[in-house]
Amino acid sequence: MDVQKAMLIYNGKAGQKDVYDSLKKCVPVLASHIDQLIIMKTKRSLHAKEICEKYGDQVELVIILGGDGTVHECINGLSRLEKRPVVAILPGGTCNDFSRSLQISQDIQEAVEQLVKGEMVSVDAVKVNEDYFINFWGIGLVTETSNHIRESEKAILGRVSYFLSALRTMKDLKPFKYRLQRDHEMEEGKAVMILVTNGSYIGTNPLPFIDISVNDGYAEIVVVNEANVTLLKDIFEIGVLEEKNKDQHIQLFRAKEIYIETEDELDVDMDGEVYLNTPCKLEILHHHFRMLKPSQT
Ligand SMILES: Nc1ncnc2c1ncn2[C@@H]1O[C@H](COP(=O)(O)OP(=O)(O)OP(=O)(O)O)[C@@H](O)[C@H]1O
């Protein structure tokens, strides 16, 4: 890697674990490959988005040291720019799901070494109404899960807290009525969760669907009609769903353009952040970003 001007954005939230330790590990390595490295600390929620919107087109490379929330904000700030920099992700949060989809090591020292020797890959983003996501969009169980995660549990248990929260949520989960338009097909019914994914990990768990790719121009749609513990294990843990519509309680589709409406307005979770409601129009932006990933050779 040989870069003239880059910007490193890190999550400055008080108590964010080991961020200075992570900076100590990655800045010297980055500095030896970058002529001018600007380091920006986020001072509040949405600051990463503002920084990216304002300065993103002035650098060749944006390095994000943070978790999926920070990545989500940066992607939103950068997506609107005409001239978008290359993006590198250093796992600095709890789950770091999108970095996992790019096969980036969860050890910060290893990750930075991988990225400076890495290769460029095109990555899709998904436009949702006037915002964007990079990893997943979800309603129902997944949103409730994010909302109900106890911060104390997340700090101690990390990935397991997602599973615990989902179990807690399931007890009082009511199915919702939805209409789903995917490309030229229409579905209607009741579901407890609808997920649309670009990435292949949620809550650190690999999603057990074949053919998830971050750059194929499609999003995978998962409609879960009924909640039970076994099903939850399949989705969040170990199961492998290999055939389309194999299980009558889960339907799998893929599409480039999606419109989802629900009878009642529902909260939407995008990359772990909850601020939008249904209805949503989703449009896959094929190869919208160039990102660094570990070299395959
Ligand atoms: N200085 C700050 N003060 C308060 N909140 C902040 C600050 N900087 C960033 N944030 C918020 O922190 C959240 C991002 O956290 P991040 O995703 O980096 O870590 P995480 O939640 O541990 O990771 P993951 O989502 O991978 O589990 C965002 O919601 C962002 O708005």
From TrEMBL:
ATP-binding as UniProt keyword: yes
Cofactor: Mg(2+)
Record-linked Gene3D superfamilies: 2.60.200.40, Probable inorganic polyphosphate/atp-NAD kinase, domain 1
Pfam families: DAGK_cat (PF00781), YegS_C (PF19279)
Keyword Lipid biosynthesis: yes
A single MF term (Gene Ontology): kinase activity
Domain DAGKc: 1-132
Key words of the record: ATP-binding, Kinase, Lipid biosynthesis, Lipid metabolism, Nucleotide-binding, Phospholipid biosynthesis, Phospholipid metabolism, Transferase
Family: Belongs to the diacylglycerol/lipid kinase family.
NCBIfam families: YegS/Rv2252/BmrU family lipid kinase (TIGR00147)
Name of protein: YegS/Rv2252/BmrU family lipid kinase
Lineage: Bacteria, Bacillati, Bacillota, Bacilli, Bacillales
